[in-house]
Amino acid sequence: MPELGNRSAKAIAALAGLAPFNVDSGTSRGKRHIRGGRKRIRDALYMAALTASRMPRAFKSHADQMKEAGKPFKVVIIALARKLLAIANAIIRDKTTFRRTT
Fold first, then answer.
1. Other C-beta atoms within 10 Å of 62: how many?
2. Which residues are bridge partners to 32 per DSSP?
């Protein structure tokens, strides 16, 4: 993604197909679904998020909090994928390395 580091986290998520879009019409309110974007990037981030959700210290606590709140499995994984993408965007934008906060 050549846009990494030059756009906001929301715009990058939309480009990757990880941003939720509403299905609303008039007074009816539908569910939010992810769609569009770049499938290869979304697939790669999905696999990275799946691995990160199982790592003991990396993103597991965030995933466990969402699971305890009753979120479905795929919602948790997509949220982690979006978080990974936002972190990658910030790392490239700031020209720094990843430092895990505890």
1. 15
2. 22
